[in-house]
Amino acid sequence: MYFGVLGPLVVRTDAGAPVSVPDTKVRTLLLDLLVHRGHPVSADRLIEDLWGDRPPRNATGTLQARISQLRTALDRAEAGSRALVAHGPAGYTLTADVVDSNIFEQLVSAGRLREALDLWRGPAYADVPDHEFARATRDRLEEARLTATEALLEQTDDALPELTELVRRHPLRERLRALHMRALYRTGRHDEALRSYDELRRMLADELGVDPGPELVDLHAAVLRHDPSLQPSRLPAPLNDLIGRTEAVHEAQRLLTTNRLLTLVGPGGVGKTRLALELGRNHAGDVRLVELAPLKQDDVLEALAAALDLRDESTNLLPRLVESLSTRQLLLILDNCEHLDIADLVRRLLAAAPGLRVLATSREPLGLPGERLLDVPPLELHAAADLFAARAGVNDSEAVKAICRRLDGIPLALELAATRVRALGVQGLADRLHDRFRLLSGGRGVPERQRTLRATIDWSWDLLDPEERAMLRRLAVHAGTFSLEAATEVSRLPDAVLLALVDKSLVAVSAERYRLLESVAAYSLERLAEAGEEAETRQHHAEYYLELAQRAEEQLRGPEQRTWLRRLDQEAANFRTALDAAPQLSLKLVNALAWYWYLRGRLGEARRSIAAALAVPGQDPADRAAATVWQVGMTATDAKGTNLTETTEETLAQYDVPARALWFLTTTQWAYGDRDVLMGRIDRAIEAFTADGDRWGLAAALSTRAQLNIVHADLDAMRRDGHRSLELFDELGDDWGRLQATYSLIVAAEVSGDYPTAEGYLSEAVQQAEELGLWTEVSFRTSGLGRLAFLTGDYARADALHERARRLAIEQSNKSAEEYAEVGLGLSARHQGRLDDAEAHFTKWLAWLAQVGGTPGIAFILAQLGFIAEQRGDFTRAQALHQQGYEAAQQVGDERAIALALEGLAGAAEDPDRARRLLAEAEALRAKVGAPLPPAERFDVERITSRARRRPSTGSP
């Protein structure tokens, strides 16, 4: 008989029929006996458990009556079962072998966690929640359930919702909290992960008087330093086990430990890629994969930038790649190098990045000094037989060995041949291979292994029906991976044909993305040309990806933004292929992709692609106008200087651009261009969006106007436009838009000293940016959180946040974000009295700011350097620096920057009367723009005011 206690009581016969146990007391009695299953329970104990301190008048007789009722219920359901409840000198004993709690514990011990947890139907011993006799057993089972759940969730990728609920129910459980932090981190919600730790730390201190354990402390430190080992693997998941390469894996790991460049060499189909991916999965640190097979020489840098999550802003991408890698500990896998000239690139990256190791796969060495080679040979006979037997689902035999010998132990050939065992049997397959390859054995000029591999694909091809052949050859126009939808649309064939090719191991699938193996792709492309279909199929490919990009463009401005960003990320190689294959569609395609490129920071790729498209004659004038606008805007975003205002005005005069283009040309220059010109443009755009009923355009333009008002600290205008923009973007569900709208609201809250509001917006912005994968935005907003920590006097947190933001900015090779973070570190150092450190943080950015036209930043840094000189007592230098800062602030016209310079000049003034006049002038200027200094920012003013009061007046004017 089966008893269930993991939830409400369940009793079933061996045949599965339900057993009715009448009366609440009888069910409680049964549960008591189940708690002590196999051990006697005295009558006195049972009476106390059932009735407590209010037993019936004839307690023993009543208990015996309940025992009789239980036996009768069991026996009625299954004859002879009354014997399960036995009586002896020590009391009553239930002998039951099948209890779900026992089965649960056995499954957990066997590692079958999902099956074990599926047994639970509710709380253990749910019928007796308040009975003391079940408490210890119930607690033990619930603890085991929670432990098993943790172990299962540790193996699950998408477990955040369940972990969030479990943490809510068990807030002090450290292992659960660690899993929750990891899940938050892996979904891009890094700041939430840190807050989860802080919440636990406070609760442990308040309720238990203890600190988090060492494992959680280490995890917290790893999150702070953005440790790449916390991320889930970026490598494609293997479809099956790696067989026959144990020694090769060990040798390759040994070589990678002592060498920074290892190249796996061997013929096509021998398994170099599979071995490299296994090494990557076994690597303890950050691993990035660049699949070079679908790329041309000009695509390599962009693909590498994408693999590193690097914003492609610069016209010269290589220095930014070098800079990004210079601080990373990374294993970079470069797969299928033989058709590209990448040796010099690899040499430069390794020379500049001491933490970088490169694992390459190629049919020939790269030819670099220090390169170690590991030959990947075909499998030896026993390993080949193991592989073939495993893939075909058969036992090893002489026929299997014969097949392996004829296929030279090449894994790809074995994989392909194994798919035919179901149709032909092992012996039938062996017979056909013998006949087939005897005809091919006399070829000249081609290595035997490659002839054999080609013959295997030939033979697989011959076994396909006409539709399958058409699908396979048409799939060859795809670059890298592709979706089921793309395969069917480009091939003009039903999806069942593709799935049949998957079954035949000619198409690989992982995470709903499909791809052709390298050798199969090359073979299929030849067949496509032979069929005379290449031009037509490439046209279909370009048309499909144009339609996909156009469909995505509006989806990137709404609630599906994250989904479509990820989807377009997956199709990057196919978009490049489409641009090359169909020049006549290139302007339409770059216009459709431009917003995606902008969101992802792929500005260099955008400029290059748009320039190439504009060079193609005979395209639509409207498409040409739109592409020109995108090109100017992308250039403005990268240049950051004021010199593009004239170029932009020429573009506007030449083309009748729509309102969204007018907005884009404005927002890409808001921080550096002529404010009056930009304000005029944005007002025109807002008027047009309002007239057209374009809510997205209106939301975007309002956020830009709010940002333009930051220069003069018009807090009312910033809040008014920012709130309306945020309201519209909330209605549209556009997370990128929310990021833009909250920027001015954050600045307004900080300027007015409303730090809780600013922190709320910033924390939400960090989460949104992380979820979207906009890592430069994450850096900026993390610096914003660091500034708030600095303003509230938490210098340790401020430094940790600014350092994290700085590292992110360096990884992204984004100078603006890096400068913002390092200025934060400089402010904190100065306020802590570490003047040398502060000076080093500030000084290094003056030349760069001058180069990009960052006059506001120059004014601010000159003020900080002036304060440092004044704090050291060097008033002459302080006076000179503050005067330069004052002139720069006047040039910008920012009243707050002018006030800061006046405060600095007051500190450098030897005459206390002059100091007081300058301070009063600064205060009046701040009051005029409605932005008086909040208490947290009065550090320098109070220092200078106090000194001026202590010094006697000189009477000078």
Automatic annotation (TrEMBL):
The lineage of its organism: Bacteria, Bacillati, Actinomycetota, Actinomycetes, Propionibacteriales. Keywords: DNA-binding. Transmembrane segments: none annotated. Residues 1-96 form the OmpR/PhoB-type domain. One of its GO terms (biological process) is regulation of DNA-templated transcription. Belongs to the AfsR/DnrI/RedD regulatory family. Residues 1-96 bind DNA. This is Putative ATPase. GO terms for molecular function: ATP hydrolysis activity; DNA binding. It holds the Pfam family AAA_22. It comes from the Bacteria.
